[in-house]
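Input:
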Amino acid sequence: MDTRHLQIFLTLAELRHFGRASQACHLSPSALTRTIQRLEEELGQPLFLRDNRRVSLTPVGEQFRSYARRAVQEWRAVRSALRKTDDLTGSLSIYASVTAVYSLLPRLLESFRQAYREVQLELRTGVAEQAVGLVQNGEIDLAVAALPDRHRASLQFLPLLHTPLLFIAPPFGAGSGLPLRDGLIDLSRVPMVVPQQGLSRRRLDQWLKERRILPNISSEVSGNEALIAMVRLGCGIGIVPELVLSRSPFRDEVRILEKAPHLDPYVVGLCSSKSNLQRPVAQAFWQLAVEQAGERSGL
Amino acid sequence: MDTRHLQIFLTLAELRHFGRASQACHLSPSALTRTIQRLEEELGQPLFLRDNRRVSLTPVGEQFRSYARRAVQEWRAVRSALRKTDDLTGSLSIYASVTAVYSLLPRLLESFRQAYREVQLELRTGVAEQAVGLVQNGEIDLAVAALPDRHRASLQFLPLLHTPLLFIAPPFGAGSGLPLRDGLIDLSRVPMVVPQQGLSRRRLDQWLKERRILPNISSEVSGNEALIAMVRLGCGIGIVPELVLSRSPFRDEVRILEKAPHLDPYVVGLCSSKSNLQRPVAQAFWQLAVEQAGERSGL
DNA sequence: CTCCATGTTGCTTATTTTGCAACATGATAT
DNA sequence: ATATCATGTTGCAAAATAAGCAACATGGAG
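Output:
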């Protein structure tokens, strides 16, 4: 039994999804499938139930999981205890959007700090849109930000957190005095405050394009926080990730619209270049993120 | 980290000898060397000190050894706990010489029994000379007996125990009234009781041939026990493994000759065919024997 | 009923591990 | 001192193992 295989098993057990797990392990789906098959063959028992829609652990799988956790942990322990040239040393630069800094970065940084005390961490915040570029040109090692829908092959992405995109409106005129169309708010008539760019803008544009609707854009802003402020002032309705709204000081001064279009959720995740992920430090951070993602979804 | 590599490491740690360890693992010496090298590279530290005469563990190696023991043991535990088709089931037939039955088989059988309760053990005793033949034609799985000096490639041997070959003489005539030559007993003149065949006979023949001595053979017997009896009766001097003599009821009725030729020690060990060692049951027994061999030498 | 998401299988390619033979090294014997 | 032996290590080719790609199942959702 190889700890690498246990690691892979653990990732799949966390994510419960072959495709995503294989990405997280930097493997092709077929390689993952086969690794699991070998494990199952070794034990003569299935570890996962695949019902072609969801993946779940069998009872045997659960037991094996607790063994795997222990085994991997113990291996890491001796290794770091006995290793002379501790390669988990050096520095790691992380770029994060404001959203990320407040939502999932705290836990992530905390546990990384605890596990790898020697690593010099450097944290930069900024707007999500820059993240990919900075990773790509090697200015930073990892980015935690809203993920683009598509990306180059040289980059790796790991979705960590989904949060719905909410339509919000100013609080006044308590009745929902907004024009409707097909039971939903008519976006061609209601004035909107939209971000200049970013994931929520792309989501909106896509939705509008599919329905050939021309929006009534009253103003374009940069940054989710700014958008909330504008909506509060009455400039129009806007779109914001629930995660951001819930942390905003204005959260009680805007109204969440129920009869709004349903957009795909806002995805925050980890991004790095494949070349960077060769570095053990980056790998360690990545692995930690995978584990935390699993814990969260397991709740 | 792969448990197989840990297993190999443990074997070398027990035997402290690359050549023998590689045999015990059914590997070529180079493969063993490289496995250890990879381990050492992984930790960035040497695990063994090779001073071209003896092999020993470094302090780091000792620490790693305790980890390896635990890891292998835990892996075996989950595996046997979760495995549905417990392949360590079935039967194992063992052939043993009388010497073996009394010397190292008890401990070996006891721990095997304890570890693999499900396995049906079948034990046959007989003369050592038959052992190899029975293994070769597949009548039995394993033999514990005196080992031949050379053997076919299809067979595997694992030396477990060395015991010196002693020259013994009848007790009467308390003075060592035997003719000498070059300070040793002159075997061309003293009557001898020798086994018809077997390891001690081969050792004797070889010794005589090297020195071009024609022995004075008074009688040939079959079996070490018979030989002791004949010597006691005064038929001549004889050769017997210390191990056998020490358990003989006649041990105080014969005299051990000091001024005797020095023969290579009598070697008792495990023998099996390579094809048989594919079976997990046989492998388990073999591995157990390796471990016990290490413990003994470690004393 | 088609399309989509998702896991699996066939086959080729890449990586890792093994074995053989030659080599290095240091001790023992002559 | 020199030959010889025992023993571990290295170069290189072969074998085994794992990975990736593309095509294929399978079961929902639109």
